Amino acid sequence: MANEHVLVHTASLPARTWKLAAAGWTSVEDKWKFRQFAPVVYDADRGVMVVVAGEDEFVGLHNEALEQAASGWREIPVTARPPSRRSHASFHDPIRHAIVVFGGSTDLSALADTWVLRWESSTLDENCVITTDADNDGLAGCADPDCWGRCDPRCAPRDPECDPARPRCGDGMCNTDLESVALCPGDCT
Q1: Contacting residues for 150 by C-beta, under 8 A, at least 6 apart
Q2: How far, in Å, CA of 162 to CA of 164, rounded?
Q3: Residue-wise pLDDT tens digits, 74-124
């Protein structure tokens, strides 16, 4: 999805998916599993749209996680699921490489819980605060694209339209909100 942004519109039937490219907005054919009251989140680490939970007029409340694959929306197999909900908040956490779901409501009550959807692997997660190569990919600290959320938070991976003047590791200035001597020795002394 390089050079494209995706917006899923679910306010009315039929639900439609729209893509924004340089030429403008275009509607794309999609087998969207219709959901109301469920935020759609762009997972910049994986380059896909994700939706967790929501409500439809046929089944009611849902608790599954879905992602937009090339062939349309598919369910993400997860071990533990949050309770079914609607009207919750969701966002992509680039530091933890996860989708965070908070709050919402059921038919009976308001919810104030937090759930984290992460993709686990057999290798260690990269520690972006120090320059140790924990995931053994040959890259460490800000040289590792896994650390974009800490080293270059205003520019997600695969985004060709990043502002070259944005604060980031490697810009020659020590931004103490983002950087440390261990993380960006070229910027901070």
Answers
A1: 94, 95, 128, 129, 142, 178, 183
A2: 6
A3: 888 888 888 999 999 999 988 788 899 999 999 999 999 999 998 766 656
* Residue 138, token pair as written in the block: 């040959």
**57: which DSSP letter?**
T
pLDDT tens, position by position, 137-149: 888 777 787 788 7
CA atoms within 13 A on the CB side of 93: 16
Tokens 């490489």 belong to which residue? 97
pTM for this one? 0.61
Q: Which residue has the tokens 């919402």?
A: 104
Residue with tokens 């520690």: 127
Residue 104 dihedral angles phi and psi, to the nearest 5°: 105, -160
Map out the domains of the chain as residue ranges: 5-118, 122-189
Please answer whether residues 49 and 67 qualify as being in contact, where contact means their C-beta atoms are separated by less than 8 angstroms.
yes
Provide the token pair at 88: 């919750």
Cis, bond preceding 14 (omega within 30 deg of 0): yes
CA atoms of 99 and 92, how far apart (whole Å): 5
Phi, psi of 81 (to 5 degrees): -115, 145
Domain 5-118: CATH superfamily, name plus number: Kelch-type beta propeller (2.120.10.80)
Contact 99, 43 (CB under 8 A): yes
